[in-house]
Specification:
Elements: H1 2-10, H2 14-24, H3 29-59, H4 67-88, H5 90-103, H6 108-117, H7 119-131, H8 133-167, H9 171-179, H10 183-197, H11 199-218, H12 226-231, H13 233-243, H14 248-254, H15 263-266, H16 270-275, H17 278-282, H18 301-309, H19 322-331, H20 341-345, H21 348-362, E1 399-407, E2 410-417, H22 423-434, E3 440-450, E4 453-455, H23 459-470, H24 472-483, E5 490-499, E6 502-510, H25 517-534, E7 539-542, H26 555-560, E8 563-572, H27 574-581, H28 585-602, H29 613-624, H30 631-634, E9 638-643, E10 651-660, H31 672-680, H32 693-719, H33 722-729, H34 742-749
Antiparallel strand pairs: 1-2, 3-6, 3-8, 4-6, 4-7, 5-6, 8-10, 9-10
Helix pairs in contact: 1-4, 2-3, 2-5, 2-7, 3-4, 3-5, 8-11, 13-19, 13-21, 22-27, 22-32, 24-25, 29-32
The structure holds adenosine-5'-diphosphate.
Residues 486-488, 511-519, 663, 665-667, 686-687, 691 line the site of adenosine-5'-diphosphate (ADP).
Amino acid sequence: MDALFFLLLVIDLSNSGRLAQLALSGSNQAEVTQNIARGLELLGPAISLDTIVEVLLVGVGTLSGVQRLEVLCMFAVLSVLVNYVVFMTFYPACLSLIFDLSRSGVDMSVVREKAKGSLLLKSLTEEEQKANPVLQRVKLIMTTGLMAVHIYSRVAFSGSDYDAVDKTLTPTLSLNVSNNRTESGEIADIIIKWLTMSADHIVISIVLIALVVKFICFDNRDPLPDQLRQSGPVAIAAKASQTTPIDEEHVEQERDTEISPVARPLLFTIEDQSSVNASTQTDLLPLRHRLVGPTRPPRPIQECLDILNSTEEGSGPASLSDEEILSIVHAGGTHCPLHRIESVLNDPERGVRIRRMIISGRAKMPVGRLDVLPYEHFDYRKVLNACCENVLGYVPIPVGYAGPLLLDGETYYVPMATTEGALVASTNRGCKALSVRGVRSVVEDVGMTRAPCVRFPSVARAAEAKSWIENDENYRVVKTEFDSTSRFGRLKDCHIAMDGPQLYIRFVAITGDAMGMNMVSKGAEMALRRIQLQFPDMQIISLSGNFCCDKKPAAINWIKGRGKRVVTECTISAATLRSVLRTDAKTLVECNKLKNMGGSAMAGSIGGNNAHAANMVTAVFLATGQDPAQNVTSSNCSTAMECWAENSEDLYMTCTMPSLEVGTVGGGTGLPGQSACLEMLGVRGAHPTRPGDNAKKLAQIVCATVMAGELSLMAALVNSDLVKSHMRHNRSSIAVSSANNPLNVTVSSCSTIS
Ligand code: ADP
């Protein structure tokens, strides 16, 4: 019985857990092996010392002369030694082997997920429990209980058995006692006898008290060296997260968040820190971000800065550890501001990794939560200064395809990025119906627009400027200035609206294969400078005066167009309507009239005479790297259906989209995944001979895809099988995470009913 207690108290699984944690933090097999070696290097000396102390302490019991205690202590010493040998030899080897076997051919995140349920992680959990005061208390209670049993047995023994045993004591002792009986001698005699009889209990109690003291006073310490605990990446990241000065740009960005930039650093005040124990602080950061880079103590900040700024060989950011980089970020100043960390390190992925450490600390993310946001294997050089700032990683969106789609004699497989179940399947069904006879389309490059707001001292002066710009000769002067800013941007029109002394000059320009917002903005700025030469009293209020109109619903784009204007048409035979869509032309025409025309008119909609054009537009935009916010204007669409004149059983359908803002160069189109999707459509990058043709083709494909989605949804609506299909495609066990929330389920699963 005692042996079992000894075993539980002496054997310590926490170090095995720690080693497993370190191994888990590696992203590949080489890193795992390296981490295990590093873990042994760090934990080894402490464990060796612990083992020696424990062997010596418990070993004293083997010399006690009390037979039962000697056996017990021998057992404990052996347990300690076996534990030590296994930990230093078999355990690391097995750990490495298990990881090697479980990693081959599998994504690391998957392995990590799997490992969560494994024995390895159980031991890790045990380690976490150890820091838990509840477990401490259980151990304490166990030990106290054991002591109580010993004390009780001793008292019971002295009260009853002692008398019996006394009678059997050696005759010499009995004789002495009877011959020299005095009062004090009697007491001393009893004590000596009592001590003799209870020696094993006393020694056991002392050993147990020593173990209790060990658990209470020493078990909370971190076996990792102090220097690592206090100045390791974790501590520094937490520190950086508390006090890193927030530069102006960050203040701008954080203004909209719930917590003010002033309050944010206060979330981790020194007072808070003292109330959070060391292990909780450590847990602020995902395990995998710990101990990356050399494990030596960080060098003084000035030395780190010198190394950072040095151009000598062997210097520079690559020779600094993550901890040292964190110290530099923490120090603030211009050496390594958090928002520029990728460029300062000249290693975008490392920069992103360190930023994640800091931000997960600041955001008080639970352990490992940010790990599920991917960041590795991404070409950040294509993102920096182009697509995104303050990068933490990327959000994967599933990409499906709809097709084959027969458009103007060519077949396309259209990539669609979406998380809305049933959307791709529905569009695919539409493609099937449309592709029997094929879709025809026309496209016009309306031009991208930018409309600055300018103000004049008087209405008369504003009118004078308006007619000056509208004069052919002056327009040519302005156009020359505009066109000088780009190889592809060409001013096409200048549409001016007047409001009091303000003019809204809507510059319209073709922009080649680029969507063109940047291009037309640059041109407009230059054109304004020329106009200002003529009208020095003209005040430029804003380069964008909302008459453009970008990313906001506006009638001007619906009426005058923006980007590309596309119209697609198709006839679908009665047989196809029946076999693919299970409906007929008359029913569809009727529904289209009452829903897309009548219903939208009742709603006062502008550009919304369609069923759900925005669904297809956004899915293709996301897949092909378009600006997703431009789905506002780009989704303007009029879906028309008629019974075909030549055969009234067939359906004649058109989709008119006057403001598709698309490009195949610039923005997100150059990112690897997005450009692969453009490649699928044969429109990646600039058209080799006719600039603008790729963008126009993309606009035609988007419009034809919209048509497929429109047709399929309309058919689903008239058949009333929409909800059924959503239940099948959208209401998976994952989507319906809460059976207690039927309202949410219904709303999300039917969101394609637009
Ligand atoms: P946007 O104006 O859509 O925001 P950008 O102006 O940022 O796009 O990117 C377009 C860039 O691509 C310009 O620098 C332009 O010179 C270049 N480019 C190369 N080939 C073409 C092309 N065929 N059409 C348009 N731009 C092109």
